[in-house]
Amino acid sequence: MSEIINLTILGGVNKEGADEPIRSVEISSGEIVGIVGPTGSGKSTLIDDIEQLAQGDTPTGRTILVNGEKPDANIRVDPRKKLVAQLSQNMHFLADMTVEEFLQMHARSRGKDESLVSRVIELANTLTGEPIAPHHHLTALSGGQSRSLMTADIAVISDSPVVLIDEVENAGIKKQEALQLLAGEGKIVVVVTHDPVLALMSSRRIVIRNGGMVDIITTSQEEQNVCCKISEVDNWLMSLRETIRRGDIVEQVA
Amino acid sequence: MKLVVVAGTPGSGKTSVLLHTIKALMRNEKRPAVVKVDCLWTDDDQRFKRLDIPVHVGLAKDMCPDHFTIYNTEEMLRWAEDEGADVLLSETAGLCLRCAPYPDECLAVCVIDVTTGPNTPLKVGPLLTTADIVVMTKGDLVSQAEREVFRERVLEVNPGCNIVEANGLTGKGAFELAELIRSGPDAVDNMLLRYNPPLAICSLCTGETRVARKHHMGVLRNLDGFMEYKGE
To answer: Which PANTHER family match (chain B) (predicted)?
Structure first.
C-alpha cells in the first residue's frame, strides 16, 4: 500500500500563540525527515498533528495536506484506510493477552489477513536479542521486545505509506535495522530523535523550539561522513552489548 | 437547548476532556453551561468556573447517581435556560454499569480510558453500547496498535458510534467533539430513556444491611445465574 504520496505541513502557532517561523514543509515519498529540539519543545505534538492529519483543529492550528489536498475525513479515523503508522514513545503494553491474540486482533482492525501474525513475530526476532514467542503475554515483554514487536507490526500489519517514529533509540533494539525496515520502499518516514546516528541518517531535520517549527536543516555531505563514522562506533557498542549479554569475555579493542 | 450527557468510568478523564471541549465551543460562539453530578464530593466545579461559564453541582448522596441525574434533568435544563446557555453539558457520576443515563433526544457521550485494556469495552455495558459518541482517552500512553485494537472492540459492541480519540492534557479531540455537539439534537419534552434501568428496587435500596440471604427481597439472581422474585 505504498502508493506515491507527499505530505505538506502548513505552519500554525507556537506555545505563545504566535505564528511559527516555518510556514510550509513538503515531504516526498522515500524521504526520511528528522524532528529535533529540546525535551518538551513540542516534537511529539508535531508527530500527533501528522498522525491526526490535523486540519487547523488541533491546539497548534497546523494543517496537513496529502498530495497537496485536504484529506478525506474517513482516512483520518478509519484504521483500515489510515495513511499513517506510528511507533510511539510508550511501548509497554497494557492489554492482558498473548502476543498472538493481540496481533490477530490488530490485523483484523486494519482489515488484514491474520496469517501475517507469524511474519510479524519472525521479523521482530531479527531486531531483538531475546526471542518472542506467540504464547508470551504482552505485559511480560521487555522494553526491547515490545519495541521490536511494534516495529515489525508497523512494517507488516500497518504497512502505511507514512511512518512516524518517536524516540526509537530508547530501548534494546537494533535501531538502524529497525529504521531501514520501517522506511521500506517509497515510504515517508518522520523520526523524532536526539540520537546523532538517526538524526544524520535523515535527509533533512525540522528544528522545534517553544512549540513551533523554527528551522529546517539539510544534512550536509560533512554530516553524512560523520554519520558513517558514528554508525561504526554504534555497531561496535552493539556488538559489545551482545558479547556481554551472551556471557562471553570482551577480548580486544577494535 | 442542546443536552449533552457525558458518562464514563471514574478517572477516565470526563472533566478534562470537557474543559477543552467547552473552550472549543466558546470559540464557536456557543454558550455552554455545566452540571456536574457526583456521589459524595467534588471540586471539579472550581475547574469549570475558571472558564467563566455557569456551573451547578449536584450531589446524589443516598440516591443512585444515575437516577438523580435523570430525576433532575428537567430542572437542569430550566436552570441552563435561565443562565442564558444554549448547550447543557451534564457530567454524570456514572458508577453503575448496569444502566445508562441517556435520554433519547440528547447527545450521549461515553468517555473511556484506553489504559484499562481492550477487554473493558465488553464490560462497560449500556453506558457504552447506547452512546452516540465514544471518547477514547489516554491513548498517548499506549501504542497505536493497542489503540486500534481498543477501537475495534468498541465498534464490536457499538457499531454505529462516532469514536473520538481525545487527550485531556493536550486538548486533542476537543474540536472534533465540539463539532459533533454543535450538530447534535435539541432536547425536547417527554424524553424517554434509551435503556431499561435495573429490574425493580432491591432490599439494599430500602436500607437492609444484614448479609444473610433470607433477609433479601426483590428480583434476585443466584451465583449460578438462576433468577427469582422474592417478596410480596
So the answer is: COBW_HYPB_UREG NUCLEOTIDE-BINDING DOMAIN-CONTAINING PROTEIN, HYDROGENASE PROTEIN ASSEMBLY PROTEIN, NICKEL CHAPERONE
Instruction: Write down the mean pLDDT value for chain B.
Output: 90
Same domain for B29 and B91?
A: yes
Q: What is the Cβ-side half-sphere exposure of residue A79, based on CA atoms within 13 angstroms?
A: 27
ipTM of the complex: 0.77
Q: How confident is the model at residue A4 (pLDDT cuts 50, 70, 90)?
A: low
B197 contacts B100 by C-beta, under 8 angstroms: no
- The whole-chain average pLDDT of chain A stands at 87
**What is the average pLDDT across A43-62?**
88
Q: Which of A88, A103, A216, A215 is nearest to A164 (CA)?
A: A88
The three cell numbers locating residue A94: 497494557
Question: Strands, DSSP E only, in chain B?
Answer: 2-8, 32-38, 55-59, 87-91, 107-113, 133-137, 162-165, 218-221, 227-230
Nearest-angstrom CA–CA distance, B172 and B155: 21
For residue A51, the chain B residue with the least C-alpha distance is B144
Number of domains in chain A: 2
Phi, psi of A11 (to 5 degrees): -60, 150
Instruction: Find chain B residues with C-beta within 8 A of A157's C-beta.
Output: 145
- Condensed to tens digits (0 to 9), the pLDDT of residues B81-107 reads 999 999 999 999 866 777 888 999 999
Is B141 within 8 Å of chain A by CB?
yes
| Site from B27, B137, B142, B144 to mutate, A interface, most A CB atoms within 10 angstroms | B144
Q: Do A93 and B143 touch (CB under 8 A)?
A: yes
Residue A2 pLDDT > 60: no
Task: Count up the domains in chain B and report the number.
Answer: 2
Q: Residue B175: its chain A contacts at CB < 8 A?
A: 57-58
Q: Is B116 part of a structural domain of the chain?
A: yes
Q: Looking at CA atoms only, how far is residue A187 from chain B in angstroms?
A: 18
Structural domain includes residue B193? no
Which residue of A lies nearest to B20 if distances are taken between CA atoms?
A: A59
CB A62 within 8 A of CB A54: yes
Give pLDDT, residue A248: 92
The answer to whether the CB atoms of A105 and B149 lie below 8 A apart is: yes
Query: Side chain identity at B161, as an amino acid letter?
Result: C
Cβ contact (<8 Å) for B152 and A52?
no
* pTM (predicted TM-score): 0.82
Q: Which of A48, A86, A95 sits opposite B172 (nearest CB)?
A: A48
Same domain membership, residue B220 and residue B134: no
Q: Is A95 close to B118, i.e. CB distance below 8 A?
A: yes
Question: Do the Cβ atoms of B146 and A94 come within 8 Å?
Answer: yes
Question: Are both A230 and A163 inside the same structural domain?
Answer: no
pLDDT tens across A72-83, in order? 877 776 767 778
Residue A1 lies in a domain: no
Q: Which domain holds residue A246?
A: 221-254
